[in-house]
Amino acid sequence: MNPIHIVTEKENIKENVLLPGDPLRAQYIAEKYLENPILINNVRNMLGYTGTYKGKEITVIGSGMGIPSASLYTYELYKFYNVKNIIRIGSAGALSKDLNIKDIVLASSAYSDSNFRYALTKSKSKKISSSNSLNQTIINTSKELGINITKGTIYTSEIFDVYESISHLLDKVPKNINPLASEMEAFGIFTVANFLNKEATCLVSISDSPYKRSEDLSPEERQTALDNMIILALESIIKR
Q1: Contact of 96 with 180, CB cutoff 8 Å
Q2: Which of 98, 171, 208, 216 is catalytic?
Q3: Is residue 3 part of a domain?
Q4: Catalytic: 103?
Q5: Phi, psi (deg, nearest 5) at residue 164
Q6: What tens digit of pLDDT does each residue of 151-192 get?
């Protein structure tokens, strides 16, 4: 069976991929940071580009929002295009009072009350780790660049919890999990990577906080104001 959501020649997608949820963020990264980017996918307007960054070929492609969409694109990238490493990059809502707007979080693991992992693997565990190897590359790179990151567990929600109270969200998470931030894709991406014996991790930049609502990023800023995170991801992925 051929892939039906990413349609391009196999050689057009490289083994190292940045995976933002927003296809317009993929376009932004390609146009601002990549040399000679070429459009390699626009099926359903899920834009994907391949180009070079400091002489290394990489692909950046959108995944859409939520576990179903993100896991679908992750699966096709790994299964049909021989991708080895994926770094999800995106925005997240703070769950920790210690995080400020635009702080960068590296997800060492993701917790979710989703049944996705059980449906794919029959595992009942609600928490899954990201790639230790990729994480170490990112940690080392962040030190070289002088970019501060916070490492820990994130919560992958199936609803956009920013519209609800912080207690509404935290009531769904066991007390011992202590998630730093909430987003909607990482748990699915990590599950597919683990299932297919591939490498994946997640970098998110804090775009909103229930403790600092006046500082929340605008919709436009969510696409374009996360450059430190993007640079960290680019500088890390070319070392793989």
Answers
A1: yes
A2: 208
A3: no
A4: no
A5: -110, 175
A6: 999 999 988 766 666 777 777 788 899 999 999 999 999 999
